[in-house]
Amino acid sequence: MYYVEVGSGMPVLAIHGWMPDHRLMRGCLEPVFARRAGYRRLYPDLPGMGRSPAGSVASADDLLAALEEFIDAHIGIDRFLLVGESYGGYLARALVRSRPDQVAGLAMIAPVAEPRPDRRVLPALQVLRADPGVLDGLDTRLQESFTFLAAVHTAEVLHRFLDEVQPGLDAADQVALARIGERLLLSRDPDAPGQEPFLGPSVTLVGRQDIAVGYQDQWRLLTRYPRMSLAALDTAGHNVQIEQPQLFEALMVEWLDRVAAQR
Fold first, then answer.
1. On the CB side of 231, how many CA atoms lie within 13 Å of its CA?
2. What distance in Å separates the CA atoms of residue 233 and residue 246, rounded to the nearest whole number?
3. Mind listing the domains of the chain with CATH numbers?
4. What is the largest CA-CA distance in the chain?
5. What is the pLDDT of residues 37-81, one digit of tens each?
6. What is the mean pLDDT of the chain?
7. Which pLDDT tens digit goes with each residue over 204-253?
8. Is residue 205 within 8 Å of 245, Cβ to Cβ?
9. Is the pLDDT of residue 125 over 90?
10. Reduced 3-state DSSP string for 157-173
11. Which of 21, 94, 168, 201 is the most buried (most CB within 10 A)?
């Protein structure tokens, strides 16, 4: 898999969601790590997304296997931090299940908690903040791409969406994703009852206006993650990291503080 590496120190594996690429994760996390030295950030593109070819990948299990191989090759047996966004949060929980002693802490951004879309509890779409004329001059395709999930229509959010999210959407291999998309459920449910709780410091950030994964299904994760802070942020949709950047960065820094204290 193609990846970008920044910094040195404790590894941090950042997994983007379905269809965007590493630019989403790098865009929201680098401001956080600018305040914290001693972390080696790894930003891969999942197969079929960004600059990573899909190859023979055809299912969620194949995506997970590719991540397992990436960890073996670039992290080895070292302990590491794990950050997953949207579908990447679903895959991240599977990695916690397979490597509970290696993952030192887990952060999830608008994660998929219910992998079956027809069973998700979703709010209605709302636009709660908008700049007049912010979409003026934007072609129809980009307007639709931006407004599809956005609860905040401001110049700053639009700029970050076009810089951090849209490039991945444009680069995605749609033929490969259609194939993989038919088998997006992992064969081993990472949230199945009866598993040992993950005791590392954790945080989950969701938007109250998220119409993609919602904010209610994530609460059931608390029982398996007793060290998890869970925040449902108002005036934020699926791109909570760019619609509420100050709260996002503050809560991520607090998570890193808790990880450092445990270490």
1. 21
2. 11
3. 3-262 (3.40.50.1820)
4. 53
5. 999 999 999 999 999 999 999 999 999 999 999 999 999 999 999
6. 97
7. 999 999 999 999 999 999 999 999 999 999 999 999 999 999 999 999 99
8. no
9. no
10. HHHHHHHHHHHHHHHCC
11. 21
Residues 65, 88: Cα–Cα separation, whole Å: 13
State the pTM of this model: 0.97
User: Measured between alpha carbons, how far is residue 165 from residues 1, 38, 199, 238 in Å?
Assistant: 19, 27, 32, 12
The total number of residues shown for the chain amounts to 263
Under 8 Å CB-to-CB from 241, ≥6 apart: which residues? 24, 27, 28, 85, 109, 110, 205, 248
95-101: list long-range contacts, CB under 8 Å, 24+ apart: 95/64, 95/67, 95/68, 95/71, 96/190, 96/198, 97/188, 97/190, 97/195, 98/68, 99/71, 100/196, 100/198
* Chain centre to alpha carbon of residue 2: 17
The single-letter code of the amino acid at 238 is H
Token pair listed for 78? 């070292």
* Side chain identity, residue 115: P
What is the spatial distance between Cα 263 and Cα 261, in angstroms, rounded to a whole number? 5
Distance CA 206, CA 232 (A): 5
Task: Let me know: does 204 contact 229? Beta carbons within 8 Å.
Answer: yes
d(CA 231, CA 204): 6
Q: How far apart are CA 99 and CA 115, in angstroms?
A: 21
